[in-house]
Amino acid sequence: MYTVTHTKRQSRRRTPVTAEPSVDVALLQLVQEALAQKRGGVYYQVQRVVDRIVICGVLQHVKGNQVDAANLLGISRTTLRAKLRRLGLVIEKEVQPARDIGHAAPLTPAGLTGDGEGVLSGGPVRSSVTA
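User: That's the sequence. What structure does it adopt?
Assistant: Structure tokens below.
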């Protein structure tokens, strides 16, 4: 049996994130399941699962804002969009008119309100990430 030891590599910029032992156990189980398939590409199979979890979590945190998500992930927006496509993820935004508007502005075809000066505004935007 092999034992893997971990070395502490300190980053000058960031404090490393530590995981609960249960996360290590879950990831090890995922690796073992991938190994049991005997297809190869274990790293990429596990990476795909982890990418899906991390990207979905970050996108929900930033309410679907891809620029903010890419910054938090430390990747470009182009890379984020490519990963979303590869993972089969879609960001859906639902725009709803605000309930506390004192005046009724005309609705545009997109369901947004116009201020007469070419500026559009809408109510709260709800974002969700779907597969």
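The CA atoms of residues 66 and 81 lie 8 Å apart.
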